[in-house]
Amino acid sequence: MEFLEPAFMQRALIAAVLVGITAPAIGIFLVQRRQALMGDGIGHIAMTGVGLGFLLSTSPVWMATAVAVAGAVAMELIRWYGHTRGDIALAMLFYGGMAGGVLLINISDTGSNANLTSYLFGSLSTVSEEDVTAICVLAAFVVLVTIGLRRQLFAVSQDEEFARVTGLPVRVLNLLIAVTAAVTVTVAMRVVGLLLVSALMVVPVAAAQQISKSFKVTFVLSVVIGTAVTLAGTVTSYYRDVPPGATIVLLAIAAFVVLTALAAPLARRRARTAEADRACSLDPGSAVPPGPREPGDVRV
Amino acid sequence: MPQHTTTDPVIRLRGATAALGGRPVLRGVDLAVHRGEVVALLGANGSGKSTAVRSAIGQVPLTSGTVELFGTELRRFRQWARIGYVPQRTTAAGGVPATVREVVASGRLSRTKLRLPRKADREAVSRAIELVGLTDRARDSVSALSGGQHQRVLIARALAAEPELLIMDEPMAGVDLASQEVLAHTLREQVAVGASVLLVLHELGPLEPLIDRAIVLRDGCVTHDGPPPEALGQHALPGHDHVHPHAASEPVRTGLLS
Predict the structure, then answer these.
(1) CB < 8 Å to B81, chain A
(2) Which of A6, A44, B43, B194 is paired with A12 by a 20 to 30 Å CA distance?
(3) Could you report the per-residue pLDDT of A80-97, keeping only the tens digit for each?
């Protein structure tokens, strides 16, 4: 437990746990509405916020939050108005955000390429006291939204048109998902870095859904996987001097591969059980007349 | 100002016109569904029947004309729990696994809104699942279901709010025989307890005995509004194309007839 000694590691581990919880918690709704790469776009936009933070000598985390939220709202507006060239508009937003960030960091007095790299790929030693406070506040917001409104967010992400006809405030909920995703990006920025943030929103969810049948189990399992890989990645990066972001993402992908391998025999067993059930009802020796045909049955 | 009475139709479209991508789809549609009525909206692909239904619930904006739900102008209508909507879908699944119960429970949100579900809400969800005969599959992932069972999930989701009016967009598309019978039975029970129904259909099929009135659309205009055109034979309907409910896919279109 030697890794718990240095103060910077304690801060890094707190940040890591919060990232492990929040990224899959909002990521599951993005995956559900098939916008798995939205986090990636927000990460690009947040870069301009980091640059502004350096230029104005304020906290890059809060600046990145402000810019990422504005970018996420803009993305949601582009989606609402269903512009036919919506993808082009998004491309402008993403690459403009990334290019702006790089430029701003380089013209600021305090910023350097080393700084840039730490924001792009994450860094343990640079998580400051101030960062931890900001990350805790932002993570609390993400957890409140994703758990408190999970039923409503589920409905909107499952079938938006149906959700509108139930009278839910669908526009507000969509904006809330976008804003929460933006906030999560800045929570995760210090540990995994802006370029790999999206992976932590998507990969734990993809891993969890290999073996789960329900949304609830997928949610819990993806948060467990997220927390496990961020903690393991952070500790590994302390001992091995490898970048934490890359380590965490590769561990998450390893979890995905292991669970996928486990899922195949599990699915086979389920199929066999289902088949056995069916064989019983079709038993020709049975005196009981056959029940109503199940829709899954194949007529021979 | 006229007082809302129980004799107000549950849905009324007056002079409804709508366009999709600049192309006019509805050209002045008048239709009404009265309390306790089961109305089928028939017509060929592209005749505007789906658009008519979706404009009635505010999902397609009208370019002119009015919509009233339960005697209230659509713009002012807020009592969405009175409506159970079954959109045209081939699947009830999303990008993440979800059980039958989880999907059906989302239909109850028109009553619970932002509050937590209570016992009565959970019971309503169980009843809706039971109505479509999926109780034994309630904890299964919807992605493990057949096409007809997906449709049953979508209908149970609409029933979870215990609506007075059911609006269904092609509930029989791609549905196997067993599920068709379940759906007809479910609908019969809803009608027996006083529900009104507006459903878009390709052909009357097994639902025929339930239907009080049929409205036929052609090129965005109502060409028939009255008893189901059984005397004619449904195959003689204008623009009838031979899609049978058990056919999983759309008919092959040559472009000559469509």
Answers:
(1) 166-167
(2) A44
(3) 887 667 788 888 889 999
